[in-house]
Protein: J domain-containing protein
Organism: Citrus clementina
Amino acid sequence: MNRTKKLWKPFCQVAHRALPSTSRFKLSNYNYNFATQIYFLDCTSSSRIQNPSLYRGLCYYFENLKFSGRSFCSESAEKASNATCWNCNEAPKAAPFLFCESCRSVQPVDHSVDYFQIFGLGKKYEIGNEKLEGKYKDWQKRIHPDLVHSKSEKEREYAAEQSGRVIEAYRTLTNPLARAIYILRLEGVEVNEEETVSEPELLMEIMEIREAVEDAADSQTLKEIQSQMQEKLIHWGNSFANAYQNRNFDEARVCIRRMTYYHRVNEEIAKKL
Ligand SMILES: [Zn+2]
């Protein structure tokens, strides 16, 4: 048991690494969820956020959380009234309304807009990643906090929140596992990632994989295991998509649990490579 436990990396450890030392935030249950997403998404970059723009945006986001005391639990309660622009009172020209095209001011976050809507997508598990990057850059050209540094404190706060949320949305949707967990959450189905595995077959499989990773003599062997994990992730991602489409949420959770395990193996491998 202990051997498999080694696969788990504390989420806060990763989150702290991803953030500046001056941002000594505490992981509440809610930003824990966000930290979890960072954890999931960082596997390909060796647990480090390497894109400076993403990094800066996350810092703004967490700094803002720290000072405003806001948390994700207040999402619905905090729903902004986005019927018209707070600055010029014009009606939005397009949805979602993150930015006013008339006066070019950043709008307050409307938490009723989900991540799929931010990217102009329907609530569907399977997406083409190529569409996301362009849209992500478009948003950041409009709402990035650096663009409003000379504006009012209120708008700077909006920009920090909007930008952070777009980053969070982008990172969630581009990661198959985080996306699966998120789309289930939109259905009101929570996934407990720390849930103990009751399937002996899966446990045995993971222990064997873990041993293979530990015993791997060279990077070639590790890469082979990694590509096997990738195949498994694709397979279970497809199973998840089917289960979700059929609204079989129990099955969808089983798929997520599998994906979580394989993902963590890949995390371990990435550290060794
Ligand atoms: Zn306006």
